[in-house]
Amino acid sequence: MDRMSALDSGFYFAESENTPMHVGSVAVFEGPAPTYGDVVRLLLSKLPLVPRYRQRVRQVPLQLGRPMWVDDPHFQILYHVRHTAVPSPGSDEQLRNLAGRVLGQRLDTAKPLWELWLVEGLAEGRWAIISKVHHCMVDGVAGTDLMQLMFDLSPDATHDEPRDWTPRRDPSGVALVAGAVTEAVTQPLRTLTSLPTVGSAVRSAKSMAGSGRTLAQTLPSLAKQAVTPTARSLNGPIGPHRRWAWTAGNFDEFKEVRTALGGTVNDVVLTAITGGFRDLLKARGELSSEKLVVRSMVPVSVRSENQKGTLDNRVSAVFVDLPVGDPDPVSRLQTVRGQMDEYKKAMQAVDVPSIISMGDFVAPSLLSLGVRAAVQAGQMWCQAVTTNVPGPRVPLYVLGRRMCTAHAYVPIAGGTRCSIGIFSYLSTMTFGINADFDAFPDVDVLSGGIRRGIEELLEHARAEKGTADVEQPAGAVPARKKKAAAR
């Protein structure tokens, strides 16, 4: 048996009728499509690498402990691997509509929390895989690590034959309660005994003082967020249906903007998304002020190198104000960059994994009630979720077929009606937009606006480069870069 972490338990308890809490993706491949049997055999050969895919969730009676992962004695892979098609020659729009329906449906919590759909019939002989994995099972970064489950680095890769598997005995209710009571006593003690000694605390006093100063410097900006006008029309109740759209950019485009205007690739990505939300609100007649922002929760991984490949969630989050009211794209980039730089300092100053582990002190029944209440009540603090998952920069193959592109799916919950999953593969960066069906009939305006935001930044970057090449002597620093350096 393996007990869920407090954070994973939160994702599990957040699930409700209108709030599926799985992450997912749509990967498109060159043809011809493999047979359903070949896909099933491939997965069976890979499952020993990820035992979690044969495990289901068992809740402890009376919620005296966090849920457990136990082997599913009735595991049947044919239930988890599905086969479908779109009318040939299927378009991207038909694939998006199909994926929106598939990804909008909840996983069966009585079984291992994943599904995979083989989709045939796409134009140009292509085919696709739609995958779903519950958020309590794996976060985005670990999910990228788990591509080894079925992806190969060579089209000529060979695979082992499927092996027989015998599930471990399903624990009784009494055993679950006994284990929960034992852990309720020992876990807080283990956490407390792992705290630094007096000697080590004294030696780190200077470091702590520096961290305190960094945190104090971030407080004014956090307080400013509380009074900044946000696009609250983007918040509200979430229904059972989803709209899904996507757009894409070339990685070189983002690097070109970064080189000319400063910041990081992630800063440029967030600024392009800002342009998308600006177009959306402008089309709705809701661009009310130049100070208006769309506040986005941006998950950040706190997984260290020695935790790579572990099957739980190690994430924290920051809240970034996307300056949708600002008409100047370059100014928007500088605003986003300033916030992200500030958060980086704060994240270095705080021991985030220790804060996350404090969830181990929360009584599981209270954790369940608290998470469900927060999700059902909704919130007005942020209007979007934006998560950037770095993917491989080398070609991937499934059964000898090369993957052309991939799009990420991020769940929505708690009154936040829109999420954007960014996924990079080879030279492409894709934006998968998941939105509430009723609240976002204009989701295509957002996806088109993100693409326009990329082009807008490119235009300014190339103008900046042209000005620097023509008007400034060799070795001079462009004016905008001087301004950025002074920030």
Automatic annotation (TrEMBL):
Is Acyltransferase one of the keywords UniProt gives this record?
yes
- Give the matching InterPro entries: Acyl_transf_WS/DGAT, CAT-like_dom_sf, O-acyltransferase_WSD1-like, O-acyltransferase_WSD1_C, O-acyltransferase_WSD1_N
A GO cellular component term found in this entry reads:
plasma membrane
Recorded superkingdom: Bacteria
One Pfam family of this chain: WS_DGAT_C
What GO molecular function terms would the record report? diacylglycerol O-acyltransferase activity
Tell me which UniProt keywords the record has, alphabetically: Acyltransferase, Glycerol metabolism, Lipid biosynthesis, Lipid metabolism, Transferase
UniProt-listed Enzyme Commission number(s): 2.3.1.20
**Region called Disordered, residue ranges:** 464-487
Name a biological process GO annotation: response to hypoxia
Q: Which reaction does it catalyse?
A: an acyl-CoA + a 1,2-diacyl-sn-glycerol = a triacyl-sn-glycerol + CoA
Q: Tell me where the signal peptide lies.
A: none
Identify the pathway. Glycerolipid metabolism; triacylglycerol biosynthesis; Lipid metabolism
Q: Which residues form the O-acyltransferase WSD1 C-terminal domain?
A: 313-457
Asked if the record carries the keyword Chloroplast, the reply is: no
User: O-acyltransferase WSD1-like N-terminal domain spans which residues?
Assistant: 4-269
The record's section on Gene3D superfamilies has: Chloramphenicol acetyltransferase-like domain
Q: Which family does it belong to?
A: Belongs to the long-chain O-acyltransferase family.
Q: Tell me the protein's name.
A: Diacylglycerol O-acyltransferase
